[in-house]
Each structure stands twice: as structure tokens, then as C-alpha cells.
Amino acid sequence: AVPRSWPAGSSASWQKSDRLRSLNVRTRWDPSSDMPALTAVLSWIETSRVATTIAQSSMLTGFLSAVHLVGLTLVGGAAVVSGLRLLGLVLRDQPLAQMAGPARGIGVGLAVSVLTGLLLFSARAPSFAANGFFQLKMLVLATAAIAHVAWYRPAILRDRGTPLGRTATGATGLALWFGVILAGCALILFE
Question: pTM value?
């Protein structure tokens, strides 16, 4: 459990926003002072040949960002089609098993996004690791990926279960994948 407040002069490495400063509440984790080993690894990643090449080339960074967005588009599009089908709002006359293709699009899009995301992360590893929106995106991404493998894809492939269960699965999948996309947008906008 994280304490709600820290005494003045504490060595905790949490950053405080102006609005929460009066409440003395920790609002963002900064790995640089809490975990020196993690800081060393992040710095090593950022100074690697691949990362410096990406950081020094705006064309390469732009290309990787564009491909990253294509992957996110695949995830978002597949999540909408299969999620709305699970909700019973579209393609009602189609069996759920036919939605395996769009559900597979989530996996393909996720693979593209993770690969390009790791490359983009490498160019600014320490600053991204300390960014609250990046941390939120990674948390929601991990949750969405686990939910996709554990519940979402099996619900589509088996075409069994109660309508309420399918509805809950579709709504949860849509919410999680769009949470990933919104957190990514927040990361870009408020970086």
C-alpha cells in the first residue's frame, strides 16, 4: 500500500502536482531515485546504438510512430467490430466464430504496436518510465492483453455462454482497448 502523504524532507522520489501539493499526496513515480539499478538499465537502453539512431533521426522516429499508429488502428478496429458483435449491436446474423478474424486483428495490431513501441521507448527510456501517462498505458495494456487471452478470444471462438456474459465480455474488451488508446493519446498530448 502506498502512503497517502510523506513528511517534509522525505527522500521519496514522487513528484507532486501543484493542485495536490497542499494535500501532500504522491502523484507520480520517478524510478530514477527509488531504484538505481533500474535507472542504470534505462540509461543503458537509451544510450544503445539502436536508441541513439532512433533519437537522432526524426524521419525514423516519424516512421516508427506511424507504424505504431497503424498497429493501434488494427487493435481499435478489431476491438470495435468484435466487441460490438459480442454486445449484439452489429452482425447479429453472423456466428460469433466468424469474429475470430477481427479478434485476431487485435493480436496482429498488438504485435506491431509492441514492437514499434519498444523501439520508440528505447530512445527516451528514462523519461517515459517516469511519465505517469506511460505507466497508466502500460498498466491498461497489460490488463487488456490478459483479458483478451483469458476471456475475450475464448468467448468468440467457443460461441457459448450466456448473453449477459458475452455482453460483459464485449463491453470490458471495448473499454480496456480504448483505455489503452486514450492513455496513449494522453501520453502524446501531455508529455
Answer: 0.71
